[in-house]
Design goal:
InterPro entries: GHMP_kinase_C_sf, GHMP_kinase_N_dom, Ribosomal_Su5_D2-typ_SF, Ribsml_uS5_D2-typ_fold_subgr
CATH architecture of the largest domain: 2-Layer Sandwich
CATH topology of the largest domain: Ribosomal Protein S5, domain 2
Number of domains: 2
Organism: Catenaria anguillulae PL171
Keywords: Amino-acid biosynthesis, ATP-binding, Kinase, Nucleotide-binding, Ribonucleoprotein, Ribosomal protein, Transferase
Low-confidence stretches: 154-174
Distance between the termini: 48 Å
Protein name: Ribosomal protein S5 domain 2-type protein
Largest sheet: 5 strands, antiparallel
Strand content: 15-25%
Order of helices and strands: EEHHHHEEEHHHHEE
Shape: elongated
GO molecular function, one term: kinase activity
Strand order of the largest sheet: 4-3-2-1-5
Length: about 230
Amino acid sequence: MTRSIQLRVPASTANLGPGYDSLGMALSLYLTPGAISLDPSKNLISRTLLDTLRAAHTSLPADSVLSIHIDNPIPTGAVGLGSSGSAVVAGVVLANWAAQLGWSRDKLLQHCVAIEGHPDNVAPSLLGGFVASVMSGGAAQGICRGPSRAHGATSRHVTHVLGNPNVHGKGTHLTKQALGCLLDDVVHQPYRMHLIPGFQQLKSALDTNPDVLGLCVSGAGPTRAHLLRT
């Protein structure tokens, strides 16, 4: 029997100022697995898929033929948009579907974090929206989720695992000055700003723009995240 799946996994921005390795938000830029090599040495999705099958002590049936196609507009490399996290989520979700593992959303998250090493990118890519995560006893917990236009990894065939429910809430009103202070950080941004040409000058210039609520380094950079008034 032929089965197929259509999967979209969003890029993400992480840290968001002071939330080092814990805060992340899904973006409306999607990796869509669709023909890539299954050679694990050539791409992270295939490597993650095969590693996940091994971790589950299973494999695909000997007579199965797996074909994957991918459309990936997310810039790869160290650019700060969570490309590796999106690839890891795609590989784990595809393994769960291909081998019919039946893993829960929490199990998927734990395995993604075990591969990626931290939850700030994989959590929003899997769950969607804004996610605050903590590591507790070696396990990741998505402790807070907020509304966002970007959904997590979605598929028409596995919505019981991956569907992102509508999240509604009333946000606290913050002034531009207060939000700017909330995005300040002393752990990682001071050491990464100098790697982004003109970051400090741009930050100073945007301080006078009423439509820009804040600016921070996206992930490890060099991408910048601007919070805009809409």
